[in-house]
Amino acid sequence: MHSLLWILVCVLPAVLPPLAQWQPQNSGTDADFRGLCAVSAQVAWASGTHGTVVRTVDGGKHWEKVSVPGAEALDFRDIQAFDAQEASVLSIGPGEDSRIYKTQDGGKHWRHLFTNRDAKAFYDAFAFWDRKHGIAVSDPVEGRFPQLITEDGETWKPLVPDVMPPALPDEGGFAASGTCIAVGGRDDVWFATGGAAARVFHSADRGRHWEVVPTPILSGKSSQGICSVAFRDALYGIIVGGDYAAPEAGEKTAAYTHDGGKTWTPAEQAPGKYCSAVALLPGSEMPLWVAVGTNGSDTSRDGGKTWQSLDIGNYNAVSFADSQTGWAVGPKGNIVRFALKPTK
Q1: How confident is the model at residue 259 (pLDDT cuts 50, 70, 90)?
Q2: Short-list 239, 174, 187, CA closest to 213
Q3: 277 near 176, Cβ under 8 Å?
Q4: How far apart are CA 34 and CA 59, in angstroms?
Q5: Alpha helix (H) ranges present in the chain?
Q6: SS3 breakdown of the chain: % helix, strand, coil, rounded to 5?
């Protein structure tokens, strides 16, 4: 599963409102981005290969490189920011390549919070309920998914659940966009898998007890499965994925739930491509979901039942700060901002 995670690239489906578009921005780097966090209309952070971290505080007019010193060999697949000053990044890889760093001064200084000492573990992504409380998930080790938890935003320690369904042989996570794990409300957390099976694990108590259910997303090969999971609230959520080895294929790439992930229904009209990330525009009157990937972006206005193509750009991750502001990122420094065209 590890080789899968290193080369994984996906495509997101989304249905953007009329007169919406992506506006290219200059990131100032050729790094491949997979980590992205939109904080506000002015502030966003992105992360990627060669230990790269960039930040904007003016809506993307300028992107500043604020990379972690000495981390040039690391691939930061996930980033979580809370404002223009505070952010945490997670690098992926076997053993000590999986690390977590944090800044509280806009990237001027970074503190090294965690290094994975288990040679068999491979951390894929993390998610935060708030500044102090977060959770990270790894590929399976000896049939179980190792997890980390922080309760102060500083100290990351192993989480040992009371109930944890075993992983299936050749099942694992995808570090495609830092979104194979998602949190919601006070205590909910979900993470998604691929390979031998495309399943969603759910805990209602911050990882102490877990349940798992199968989904209709394509699976069976190491290149197939769920890349991203996102929830609007405790009940409504969407998963996307497919086959990264055949990104043009649109079979079984999206599904939705109305019961908190107990059951998943395949999209009636799925994105016609492999998907790596999905995100919701918060605060919109008609909830708008956007999915992105190597073959373009798609949108859905009906909770994931049907999807429509927006463009054919090359993206790995997407994130929204509000109903009108968001970004997508991709390979070779690609950063674009979501925009609504002005109407007369």
Answers
A1: very high
A2: 239
A3: yes
A4: 19
A5: 2-7
A6: 5, 45, 55
